[in-house]
Structures are given as C-alpha cells and as structure tokens.
Amino acid sequence: ADIISTQDHTVVEKEGYLLKAKIADGGKKLRKNWSTSWIVLTARKMEFYKESKQPALANLKPGYKPECVDLCGARIEWTSEKSSRKNVFQITTVSGNEFLLQSDIDFLILDWFHAIKNAIDRLQKE
Ligand code: I3P
Prior knowledge:
By secondary structure, this protein is of the alpha+beta class. The protein has helices at 55-59, 106-125, and strands at residues 14-25, 28-29, 35-41, 45-49, 67-70, 75-78, 88-92, 98-102.
C-alpha cells in the first residue's frame, strides 16, 4: 500500500460488507432501516452499494448509482444510544447526513472504524 500515491483519490482503501442504516438526510431524521451494504472506501468518500460491486452485477443495472458519502469534514464516533445492537458507529457528513454502521464481528468493525477515521483525519490535514 505504501507505494500507492495518496494523491490518487480513486484507490480503494477498503471494501466489504457491513450493516448500514441511514438515520438522517440533510439534517432531517429518517426512519431507521438496517440493510446489508457493500461499502467501498477511497481517500475522500465512501460508496454504499446494495450488493457486491462486481462489474457483471453492476452491468445488469444500467444507471445504478451507489449512495456516496463525502468524508471531507465528516465526523465519526461510536454510539451506544442510537441502537440496541453492539459495535455501532455513526458517520455524520457536513451536509447533515447520518449513517450507522454495524458488525457483530469485533475486529471487522474496528478495522472499518480506524480506516474511516484515518481517511477523515488525513483530509483535515490537507
Ligand atoms: C425499528 C427496527 C430497528 C430498531 C429500531 C426500531 O423498528 O426494529 O431495527 O433499531 O429501534 O424502531 P421499525 O422497523 O418498526 O422501524 P436497532 O435494531 O438499531 O435497535 P429504535 O427505535 O430504538 O431506533
């Protein structure tokens, strides 16, 4: 990973499945609805896909756009109040979108938390 330039914002830093619930859109509260999402993290953003980001699958759905999360200025924090589930953290974007992410697998959710936090911290130093 060291030989890949951090200037390349398209490099996938991490991807995989997590449980996701969007709980606010532009500051407006949404009804919580957990679903499994394929998440792709790059330097500046996260993309939430409804399923695996394999080209073959994507090709079956012309015009399908993943939900995109701008990490610039975003906040990330663990929360125990916003869900009865364990291992939940929240991402809040500048535009007032709020997402909960969860996994029952401790090391997996920790890896994600640190990868996203690192991306946010790096953006802050730019
Ligand atoms: C919600 C659903 C969520 C639950 C949420 C419920 O009900 O059961 O899974 O969140 O709890 O309101 P509904 O499907 O009828 O909208 P957790 O699984 O994260 O606890 P909440 O209201 O305490 O957020």
